[in-house]
Amino acid sequence: MTKTYYLTTPIYYVNGKPHIGHAYTSILCDTFARFHRLRGEPVFYITGTDEHGIKVQKAAIEQKKEPKAFVDEIVPQFKDLWRVLGIRYDHFIRTTDEYHKQVVQKVLADLEAKGDIYKAKYQGWYCTPCESFWTELQLKEGKCSDCGRAVDRLEEENYFFKLSKYQDWLIGYIRDNPYFIQPDYRKNEVLGFLKEPLEDLCITRPKARLTWGIEYPGSKDHVVYVWFDALLNYLSGAGYFLDDKKFKSLWPADLHLVGKDILRQHAVFWPIMLKAMGVIMPKLVFAHGWWRIGGAKMSKSVGNVVDPIALVQKYGSDVLRYFLLNEVTLGLDGTYSEDLLVERYSSDLANSLGNLWHRTASMIEKYFEGKIPQGKAGTRIYDAAGLWDETSKAVLAHDPREALARIWAVITRANQFVEETKPWALAKDPSRIDELADVLFNLADSVAHVAVLLQAFMPETAKVILERLKIGPIEQIRGDKEFYGSLVTAGTVIEKGEPLFPRLDEKKP
Questions:
Q1: Long-range contacts for 494-497 (Cβ within 8 Å, ≥24 apart)?
Q2: Is the domain 338-484 a CATH 1.10.730.10 member?
Q3: Considering the entire predicted model, what is its pTM?
């Protein structure tokens, strides 16, 4: 029985509306999920919202709202964005969901009974934006090691989780499982961090300072630290403790995709939590880079975020998906500018893919009354089996940019084929009508194969192309042999339709 491919985004913090950084992570996961479904695999894609903590409480107070009412207004904005972007998730979890609270309190009670959680007084420095404690030695020039902002001196009684107990185990596990953290340079960063002694993790906040959180079991004076709460969503959303059959069908997670700024929580806190609980490790934690504008990280606190909804309204969801997937190798930082997006729209989408469809459909319409001609199915202008294998290899290696490069190589080759064969010249010679039919049949079939693969990357564009070729959605391809066969049928009346990517000065809002 094939194991369900289980992948996760981080759950997004709801102290503000979603931006292009959130969109990037979810589009990546959606692409991987769609491609695994295309390969005939069962998939469980989970995303959601992280709704507790000081930052949310502070944002709610600033708007003179109760925290629950505040998050209830923000969460639909995330769901609306995923709908607009074509994100096809299987489960949306909120950390305010009652079943998630049950799991968090169960885990805490078990770990305390095991002796891995203890109560103690804490003296040190606290960063409110990061919701993290730091020792004097961990500060950088007296400020937070992560964000560089000011910290506050605190002294309070809290519950602590014994991270330090498992440090040597974690170092050994990462070294024994080199694919556990990717890319490799991020794995090396984690191992570098682990060279210094781990401090035990403070996993509660006193209610005198924070009231918005899950109550710690056995103490009405404390709520759970937002990160300990949030990480457990990967288990609670998969049925841990509540649905054993479901959990066994999903766990271990195949992919946790996260931003590089939260790698330490996922590559240090999370595996140690799982080890202490006796739960098997996830297969892969992959950290992607940041999107920058003018050299600065895009973030809500800096105020330089880009609204993905506005971009979709202006250019279309698939244009944004293509840009984010293609512009940077996964793991590295990317530079965003609208000028660069427009350049990709014109060169890659309008002049390449859009032009290929338009000229192919126009010639079929002009020379064969809009019907796909009878051509030689065995005559290929590219290696279809190789295209499937190479695209699959790239996606399975979490390299959507390389996968798109393989697909675009076929689009480029098809456009070159038009120039080489000159169908307009063949049409002038009645004796070469069969040759013209072969050319147009193979062009139509090439576009169909491209569209099938693009279902994972640009689902709306792929759907339009397949519908115009009168091909229904091809939801599963079981290997290169199935992909290699002709996808179009001679005699089918196609629909040319409007340009896939019209000139921007002509594009309707």
A1: 494/361, 494/364, 494/365, 494/370, 494/371, 494/372, 494/444, 494/468, 494/469, 494/470, 495/361, 495/467, 495/468, 495/470, 496/358, 496/361, 496/362, 496/365, 496/370, 496/468, 497/361, 497/464, 497/468
A2: yes
A3: 0.93
The number of beta carbons lying within 10 Å of the beta carbon of residue 321 is: 27
Query: pLDDT by residue (tens digit) across 428-467?
Result: 999 999 999 999 999 999 999 999 999 999 999 999 999 9
| Cα dihedral: 272, 274, 279, 280 (round 10) | -60
Closest by alpha carbon to 178, among 46, 285, 52? 285
Structural element, H or E, at residue 125: strand 117-127
**Domain layout of the chain by residue ranges:** 338-484
Q: Give dist(CA 308, CA 27) in Å, integer.
A: 12
Q: How far apart are CA 354 and CA 447, in angstroms?
A: 10
**Predicted local confidence at residue 377, as pLDDT:** 58
Structure tokens, 3: 């194991």
Measured on CA atoms in the order 12, 17, 21, 25, is the torsion positive or negative?
positive
Task: Provide the sign of the torsion angle of the four alpha carbons 117, 122, 125, 130, taken in this order.
Answer: positive
Cβ atoms of 271 and 191 closer than 8 Å: no
Residue 166 CB burial class (10 angstroms; 0-12, 13-18, ≥19): buried
Identity at 121, one-letter amino acid code: K
